[in-house]
Amino acid sequence: MVRHKYTPGLLLTVLLFHVAPLFAQTVQQSAQKSGEEIHVTADSLKVEEKGAKIEAKGNVELRRQEMILKADELRLNRETQQTEAKGKVSVDDPKWKMKGEALQFNLEQETGTIDQGEIFLETGHLSMSGKRLQKLPGQAYHIEEGFFTTCLCDSGPPTWKVSADEIDLRREGEAILRGGTFYIMDVPVLYLPYAYFPLRTERQTGFLFPRFGSSNREGFKFEQPFFWAISKSSDATFGVDVESRARVGLFGELRTILSRDARGEIDLSYFNEGLRKNESRTVGDRTIADQDIPKNRWSVFATHRQTSPLGWKTYSDISAFSDDLFLRDIDAFILTSPRALELRINRYASSRFGLLQNWSDMQLQGEWAFYQDFIQQDKRTLQKTPQILFKGRRVLGETPLEFRWRAEGVNYLRREGADGLRLDLRPELFLPFQVFPYFLGSWDVALRETAYHLYDRNHDQDEGVFDRNHGRQLVELRGKVGTSLGRVYNLDGSYLQKMKHVLEPEVSYLFIPRVRDRDIPIFDGTDRINRRNLLTFALTNRLWGKFSQEPLGVPEDRDVEMVTSPTPGDIREMGNLRLALSYDIDKERKGGDSLSDLDMNLRLTPMDYLALGFDTGLNPGPWQVSQAAVLFSLLDPRPLARRVLDRDFMRPNQLDLSYRFIRRDSLAELADNANLTTLSDERLLSRNILGQLSANALFHVTDHLLFVYNANYNARDGRFTSNKGGIKILSQCECWTLSFTLNRSTNPDKTSFKFTFDLLGLSSQNREMFK
Questions:
Q1: Fewest C-beta in 10 Å: which of 489, 512, 608, 636?
Q2: Could you give the CA distance from residue 88 to residue 84 in angstroms, rounded to a whole number?
Q3: ∠199-205-209 over CA atoms, to 5°?
Q4: Strand 206-207 relative to strand 211-215, pairing
């Protein structure tokens, strides 16, 4: 197919009408042969050999799929797909762009050569230019007397570039240089007779940029990581960590995916504390049982998941440390994963090994679990070695009656205190029913047998000696009935079309008789079950919304990313409120406090970028709040202006605020954060356990300046437990970032400063700040 503009070459246009039928047939056959249509427009066109060859001059434009080629002159062989273009040649493709004076190109294979040309790759923002450029199959190139950079500078020299006599860019994203020079602002700073560079932001072997920092306790900090792309399914990171007044260490990470059903990861670190002085000053929490800081310190993180051909799944998650203060004291490259950050505020580090098998309605699981206690001595910590769980369900015949079962066996071990075997059997009959058309409910009764065989019967010095073999029998009765009422409101809005309000009232009952369990040890919550005779009343309100079919505010520019992706005709829950209150029949008979706390749970998501949450327990006696949690989360819904290589600059503005409160009572101390100092002073026992305000914010000050902040404030003690802030600078050419972070912590009492520099697209770490 040929399209014509009204041009001075009108005579040629008129002549083409006489051969149009023949020419149209030729084009169609050629298109079927190549599989793609080609459209050409120009000031003048010349067609030869029944449309097989085309010559075009003046404002030439060739279109093939999403590729557009422009030039002053063009020669095209439709049979071979070979193209020759001259004069202000440009090629625009979604994945790459090219400019030059002359071009020889094969449209089918997308290979060719260009003289005095430039090439830009969208992936990695890589710009290349040279005296002669050759495009090979795939994204592979050979450049003579050229240079490359990832800087996108509108004017002036790029921040950095590498020139060379010859450059080979392979499809894997590796650049081989011969006779090269590294430039900063057009100033040569390093001669590279032969060099290798990883140029993609994906996995490439090479040194990552070092990290620098400083703190009032550890002194100057230097980290140098090295990334090894072993294969397409395996990679590793190794590095060295030096802190001038504390330690020298090594760390390594290995990640592998053996197959679709097998993957694993292991992270190791070793630190020598020979540079440290007065290590006892590091300990911020004197309630920790083991306050010793050894000279040699290490950590192990490991995980694996594997599924056998028979359906058996094996898994492991390992977290082990040389001492209880390791995570609080050391902040290294390898310890910035979400799992490590979570363990910093936990009381325990757990390691587990297990296997799992699922059938249609049954499950068998075996697990070995080990715990490292960061607060108390490990010799009193219970270890589950092993734990076996078998549970399932089966419908009895054609009846609605369902038989359920759960059998659990645990072997508890510890060096001091009672330990032994425990077997917990719980068969259950479950019967769903319907009362009238709108009321649904269920009844279930469960028999429970818990048997013990103790190894060490001395549980505690104050509790005496338990029987070696003991058992406990229970009966559990449960029932509930509820309904659901709803109404739909037609709003016919441009954004929100319909809204549905659903009301779900529910009444449930639980009965457990009193049993004698004082003569058995306490391993966990299964060992103490008090008598229950409770009625619970609950009311849930749900608000659903149906949104417009047309997505709002979707940009046409392919380089603009949406923060959220609206779905046409999206139906989602906009909010829910649940109220629950329990009534204790036994306590009412004895004249005691028969009402539980009023639990209120509120969730609001009026927009997919705004979330509000509120959970609280309200004591109806004195009408006091016993515990509360508040959450506010806001995500900037505006589309991001452009795509850059740095992850933080691709994150939208975000603000998260949360508050947690726990009033002191007989059980509240169990909710203490392991990293908060335990209140040992009797004068402080009347104070609340927890009142913590947390904030997390990310804000784009400008297109090239980012502010990140994260803090936890202990309102009970009137101090920050952690306070961390940072800024990140993106160069005007968008090819390097500079970040500064300042962290102030109270446990241990330390102020630290970190500095990170990355050349984007060139062995960049590109890790997100505070995430």
A1: 489
A2: 13
A3: 75
A4: unpaired
CA dihedral 102, 106, 109, 113 (to 10 degrees): -30
C-alpha span between 741 and 720 (Å, rounded) = 17
Instruction: Return phi, psi of residue 583, to 5°.
Output: -120, 120
Q: What distance in Å separates the CA atoms of residue 511 and residue 331, rounded to the nearest whole number?
A: 50
**In 10 A of CB 765, how many CB atoms?**
16
Please report, for residues 472, 520, 582, the alpha-carbon distance to residue 516 in angstroms, rounded to integers and kept in the order given: 8, 9, 24
How far apart CA 760 and CA 762 sit, in angstroms, is 5
Smallest Cα–Cα separation from 663: which of 704, 716, 710?
Answer: 716
Say how far apart CA 178 and CA 142 lie, in whole Å.
Answer: 12
pLDDT of residue 547: 84
Distance of CA 230 to the CA centre of its chain: 24
Residues 6+ apart with CB under 8 A from 601: 576, 577, 578, 614, 615
Residue 487, by phi and psi: left (phi above 0), alpha (psi -120 to 50) or beta? Answer: beta
Name the residue among 66, 55, 114, 125 with its Cα closest to residue 90.
114
How far apart CA 672 and CA 665 sit, in angstroms, is 12
Count the Cβ atoms, other than its own, within 10 Å of residue 267: 22
Question: CA separation (Å) from 248 to 208, 274, 301, 620?
Answer: 19, 8, 20, 57
| Cα(711)–Cα(720) distance, integer angstroms | 7
Query: Mean pLDDT by 10-residue block, N- to C-terminus, for the chain (771 residues)?
Result: 34 28 31 59 82 84 85 85 86 83 81 84 79 80 85 82 84 75 86 72 68 85 88 89 92 91 94 81 65 89 94 95 88 74 83 94 95 87 93 93 96 88 96 89 96 74 65 94 93 86 96 86 87 94 84 44 49 93 87 86 91 91 85 90 82 93 60 41 51 92 93 84 91 88 82 84 60 56
d(CA 321, CA 318) in angstroms, rounded, equals 10
- Integer-rounded Cα radius of gyration of the chain: 35
φ/ψ of residue 590, rounded to 5: -90, 5
* Cα torsion angle, 335, 338, 340, 345, sign: positive
Listing DSSP states for 689-752 in one string gives SEEEEEEEEEEEEETTEEEEEEEEEETTTTEEEEEEEEEEEE-TTSSEEEEEEEEEEETTEEEE
Task: Give the C-alpha separation, 640 to 553, whole Å.
Answer: 12
394-408 burial: b if 16+ Cβ within 10 Å, else e: eeeeeeeebebebbb
Q: Rounded distance, CA 571 to CA 433, Å?
A: 30
Q: What is the b/e burial string over 354-391, where b = at least 16 CB atoms within 10 angstroms of the residue's CB?
A: bbbeeeeeeebbbbbbbbbbbbeebeebbbbeebebbe
Q: Strand 44-48 relative to strand 206-207: parallel, antiparallel, unpaired?
A: unpaired
**SS3 state at 339:** helix
